[in-house]
User: What shape does this take?
Amino acid sequence: MSNIAGRVREVFRGDQRVDADALIARLDAVRRFLSAVDGLLPDADLVPAHTLVERAGTRLALSRDHTVVALAGATGSGKSSLFNALAQLELSPVGVRRPTTGVTHACVWGPLEGANHLLDWIGVLPRHRFVRESALDADDETALHGLILLDLPDFDSVQRSHRLEVDRLLGLVDQVVWVVDPQKYADRVIHDSYLREFHRHREVTLVVLNQADRLPPAEVPRVLDDLRRLLDTDGLTGVPLLATTAIDPAGMVGLRNALERTVAERQAALRRLAGDVDTVVAGLDELVGSARPAGGPDDAAVNGLNRALAGAAGVPAVTEAVERAYRHRAGAATGWPVVRGWRRLRPDPLRRLHLPGPTGDQADPAESLVAATSVPDPTAAQRSALGLAIRAVADRAAGDLPAAWPGAVTSAARSRLGDLPDALDRTIAGTDLGLDRRPVWWRLVGGVQWLVTLAAVVGLGWLVLGYALRALGLPALDNPMVGQVPLPTVLLLGGLLAGLLVAALTRPVVRWAARRARARADQRLTARVAQVGDEYVLTPVRTVLGSYAEARDALRDAARR
Ligand SMILES: Nc1nc2c(ncn2[C@@H]2O[C@H](COP(=O)(O)OP(=O)(O)OP(=O)(O)O)[C@@H](O)[C@H]2O)c(=O)[nH]1
Ligand SMILES: [Mg+2]
Assistant: This one.
């Protein structure tokens, strides 16, 4: 058995008082537990806790001045006889035909008005409610004022409806007096199906061996001893055990005194509910256990997730496009002006992915809810890698949580899987890839290229003009000479050669800078994709772990008497 259940004290508390405020705090803790695990644990496992919270709330809101005591037992044990003997009236028919009592009868000591709401809730029909108060014997009965005694049908009945009625009422009453008779006191049904189930309600359990007059007086202590031994085996050590004789007022004194004490203490309802909380907490214990709430998935699992997300988001394709786009744009800015125009005609590799183009125009991440880019869809392998990474995150996060939780953690990790592709796509579209600013050196090199090209054009123009003048028989231009070569020729050839040389020298620099741009983009994209992973996978997982921690704390508070 686990720790929390162990902490619920199993010792018989006898007349230890239950503080109403402490009980309400424990019930609040059960409520907190339920809200923490809502939607995470199977509803079927939570039914007893929900029932407790609802019943306890209602019972405490109804009269606390009344104590509802049920007489329960096998058919013919003498429940109705005891009921009538205590009421000193023939209220519930006693018969020889078995079973006799088919519906619950109630007798209220004191005015009926105050008790009616309680009896409505318990479900005793008005025609089976009786009042034990008359002017003649009012003084004798004051000690029982506030008692609502119920005569239940038989729980071992051939009539299924009787058993259902008994089971329902045993869940609602404040105290149970189990009535057994000398013939059937050792019957397995009463011990296995009922008394054993009540071991957490020992404080509100009383057992009577009725029809004691049918035994030779010397036998009574021996039968009581035998019954006590059976009760010990049932886990009911220490519960009051009395011998009664319904047909003789003297044989009722012990039971009557016990009931008077119960009524005077006004504790039965609280003790009953405290026992209910113990039962519910013990039942929930294995759902929560004592495992420490894990801190979350470890770094290795998170890194694996980020890698898988980056793959599924097409980060490698984008970073490759960034490298090519850098080369493309740098080429267009620094290349030989003669071929620059031709370069510009070729599409920008990032534009092809519908990512920010050469002007650096950023896609607005909130702009659309559908795929924003044309980054290729993840392959089947990437999708399955992502599935495995998410599962690994869930497994590591769940750690050694009790069996009911890993499923909830996995569901949480996968809960937003459907939204991931769009989120990743929007993130990729919204990430500044670092290409929007044109480096100064591009402009410088571009300027030099223009200058040398201009020189070549001037040289060409000069030469063309010289030829034209010569062709028309006009006086030739007086070309200045640079060494042996005329200046226009130097300008033309020098300009062309310088242009090609600058282009050739720039190329390795561009390649190196493009690789850096790719690495920078990779870093940014990976960081943004990790944010998406955090929001869509890790946050839901952490929420479940938080709920586990809350549930565990709440259950610990609920267990505290
Ligand atoms: N001698 C003797 N007979 C008793 C005593 N109590 C009950 N009886 C008799 O036992 C029989 C059954 O009594 P009931 O009170 O009807 O028993 P019950 O437990 O209400 O039975 P169901 O209503 O069928 O569940 C009746 O004939 C009673 O007269 C007792 O203390 N001594
Ligand atoms: Mg009866």
In short: The longest strand covers residues 67-73. The chain has 20 helices and nine strands.
